[in-house]
């Protein structure tokens, strides 16, 4: 029996909760036998004791390891008996094959003194405990005299990912928050068939400069260490949280690329960090850019926070988005506890969890003949609904998943969701992970009205909506990523026109390939639709969805758009583009039943006309609208005083304050 402490670095997460670790690198043999190994874990005053029944196994066939991050792994293989050709089996019930169980050990585990013994088929692993210095609990005062209650306020600061570092004058809590956002594409540099329109990344942007003493001093003199590290993409919406974090102030740490305007957020301090993404690099895909951002941001963030620790004492907690996994490495290095933030829906992470098995069985890459088949154990998803990104090659996509999940979810998780939408998924995921959950969504309902969009919102559409009949308008917007060609534009235009419904259509500049805006619309289109149509470059989406005239939303079904639509009781036409949008679409149409999906791979005017009339005119659409209104009421209950999201928010505040 091998006992191999692979890494004995200082632990960084104060986590007393057991955890099943999902690793995309595991093979099907290990995963398939995982449930066959039952393990007891008890804690005594002196040690953590693990016991596993392994009848018939020799100690040489069992391996116990402690890996980086205090991960205890128990693995081995139960071999199948050799068969004689004359043997006739009547029943085979004993399991065989590889097995593996992994647990994240608490901070008080003394990993360099682990002992393992095996007697009478029972494996006993004893992990001695060590004394851990407890974090001092500091009473947090309110810094602004003009406010009796200062609220924690998070803007979706112009990027898809935001990390927030929150701390009081003496102690600090670090939070990294991502806004799912809708990523505009700007310059045409994406390769391998991924075309960007007027919206991807401007490689001519100002070069990133390193942190300097003046920018550090500006942040420090504000008395805060709260930061945001946005992924370097534009975002049209604000994902915020107006929550009761008394006494916490916020510094937004951001890349200089697509940086926010500090004057729009006077309550925040801002700290630029270099990301190396504007130094003339040409990335093969959006996914490769994400990989590069995680590599480039780690060192400057670590250096700054190390200096902050030295000057102001320990940081109490790091809250970071799972996609910005470099923050986890920084937390480990600085020995700081952390909390994960997930801004997609819970069902997407459950689907990600199944990818290793699906890969091993050959279901990924997806096969055309099985696209409409149900995915085993992922009801109601079909293979075409799996959250696989179209923004680059599969290798880059799965590398990001490996980096995200390999050592994640050992600490609590903040979710941008709510019980009334995903109660069963939340329960399933919590059973898998065994860590505290804080479902505080929808974040946009907790934030004050504001806009951090880098695209100018055209408020003329509100004046136009004021002239329309109640629930008569179909609002059409596909976020800031999807693009189309001239043929698709024409099919959409005539499909909307032929529906005879008034429509508000967002056509993002550059989203039509080969065109600046709407130059390629059919010549007679505008004369045909007249006042029944209003086209804008960008719209104040939350205000539009809340308008009395809007009765339907044709969307790409990003999670923010989905939550915004449900929160206003607006049913949807779904045409997902990539990733979790597919999962969202399936739940919208087949679980919550507040929308319908355009199933065809090609945009066709007849199908579009039929879908619009189904949603806006037919009895089927009225039933969806009624269910959407019922969900709206449930969302309001969740976010009101005493509701599930409200309670989770207060629990999160208490948890952070305990460090």
Automatic annotation (TrEMBL):
Gene Ontology cellular-component terms listed: cytoplasm
Region annotated Disordered, chain positions: 207-241
Signal peptide coordinates: none
Keyword check for DNA repair: no
Molecular function (Gene Ontology), one example: UDP-glucosyltransferase activity
Domain SHSP intervals: 30-143
Aminoacyl-tRNA synthetase keyword on record: no
CDD domains xref list: ACD_ScHsp26_like, GT1_Gtf-like
Origin: domain of life: Eukaryota
Classification via PROSITE patterns: SHSP
Subcellular location: Cytoplasm
Principal place of residence: cytoplasm
Record's keyword terms, sorted: Cytoplasm, Glycosyltransferase, Stress response, Transferase
Family of the protein in this entry: Belongs to the UDP-glycosyltransferase family.
Name the UniProt record assigns to this protein: UDP-glucose iridoid glucosyltransferase
Organism whose genome encodes this protein: Vitis vinifera
Taxonomic path: Eukaryota, Viridiplantae, Streptophyta, Embryophyta, Tracheophyta
């Amino acid at each position: 029996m091998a006992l191999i402490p692979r890494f004995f670095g200082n632990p960084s997460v104060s986590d007393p909760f057991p955890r099943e670790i999902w690793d995309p690198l595991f093979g099907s043999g290990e995963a398939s036998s995982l449930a066959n190994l039952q393990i007891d874990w008890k804690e005594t005053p002196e040690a953590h004791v693990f016991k596993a029944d392994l009848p018939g196994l020799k100690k040489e066939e069992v391996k116990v390891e402690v890996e980086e991050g205090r991960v205890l792994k128990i693995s081995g293989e139960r071999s199948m008996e050799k068969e004689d050709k004359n043997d006739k089996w009547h029943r085979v019930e004993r399991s065989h094959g590889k097995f593996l169980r992994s647990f994240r050990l608490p901070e008080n585990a003394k990993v360099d003194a682990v002992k393992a013994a095996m007697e009478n088929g029972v494996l006993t692993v004893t992990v001695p405990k060590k004394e851990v210095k407890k974090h001092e609990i500091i009473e947090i005062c309110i810094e602004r005299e003009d406010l009796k209650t200062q609220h924690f306020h998070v803007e979706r600061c112009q990027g898809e990912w935001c990390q927030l570092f929150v701390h009081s004058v003496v102690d600090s809590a670090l939070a990294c928050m991502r806004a799912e956002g809708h990523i505009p594409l700007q310059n045409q540099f994406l390769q391998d068939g991924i075309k960007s329109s007027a919206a991807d990344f401007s490689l001519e942007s100002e070069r990133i400069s390193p942190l300097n003493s003046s920018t550090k001093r500006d942040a420090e003199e504000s008395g805060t260490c709260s930061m945001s590290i946005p992924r370097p993409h534009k975002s049209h919406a604000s994902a915020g949280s107006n929550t009761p974090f008394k006494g916490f102030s916020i510094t937004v740490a951001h890349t200089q690329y697509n940086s926010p305007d500090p004057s729009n957020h006077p309550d925040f301090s801002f700290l630029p960090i270099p990301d190396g993404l504007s130094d003339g690099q040409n990335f093969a895909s959006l996914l490769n850019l994400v990989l590069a951002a995680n590599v480039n941001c780690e060192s400057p963030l670590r250096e700054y926070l190390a200096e902050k620790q030295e000057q102001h004492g320990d940081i109490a907690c790091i809250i970071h988005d799972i996609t910005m996994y470099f923050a986890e490495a920084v937390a480990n290095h600085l020995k700081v506890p952390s909390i994960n933030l997930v801004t997609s829906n819970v069902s997407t992470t459950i689907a990600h969890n199944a990818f290793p098995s699906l890969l091993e069985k050959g279901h990924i890459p997806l096969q055309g003949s099985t696209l409409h088949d149900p995915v085993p154990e992922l009801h109601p998803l079909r293979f075409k609904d799996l959250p696989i990104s179209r923004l680059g090659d599969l290798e880059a996509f799965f590398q990001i998943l490996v980096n995200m999940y390999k050592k994640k979810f050992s600490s609590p998780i903040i979710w941008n969701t709510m019980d009334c939408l995903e109660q069963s998924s939340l329960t399933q995921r919590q059973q898998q992970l065994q860590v505290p959950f804080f479902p505080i969504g929808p974040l946009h309902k907790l934030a004050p009205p504001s806009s951090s969009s880098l695209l100018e919102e055209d408020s003329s559409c509100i004046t136009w909506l004021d002239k329309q009949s109640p629930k008569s308008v179909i609002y059409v917007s596909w976020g800031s990523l999807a693009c189309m060609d001239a043929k698709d534009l024409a099919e959409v235009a005539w499909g909307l026109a032929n529906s005879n419904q008034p429509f508000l259509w967002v056509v993002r500049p550059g989203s039509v390939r080969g065109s600046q805006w709407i130059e390629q619309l059919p010549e007679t289109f505008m004369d045909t639709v007249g006042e029944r149509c209003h086209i804008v470059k960008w719209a104040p989406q939350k205000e539009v969805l809340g308008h009395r005239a809007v009765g339907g939303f044709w969307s790409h079904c990003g999670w923010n758009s989905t939550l915004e639509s449900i929160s206003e009781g607006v049913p949807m036409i779904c045409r997902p583009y990539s990733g979790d949008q597919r999962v969202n679409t399936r739940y919208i149409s087949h679980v919550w039943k507040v929308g319908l999906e355009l199933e065809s791979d090609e945009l066709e005017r007849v199908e579009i006309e039929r879908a619009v009339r189904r949603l806006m005119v037919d009895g089927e659409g009225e039933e969806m609208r009624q269910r959407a209104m019922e969900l709206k009421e449930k969302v309001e209950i969740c976010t009101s005083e005493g509701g599930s999201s409200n309670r989770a928010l207060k629990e999160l505040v208490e948890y952070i304050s305990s460090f």
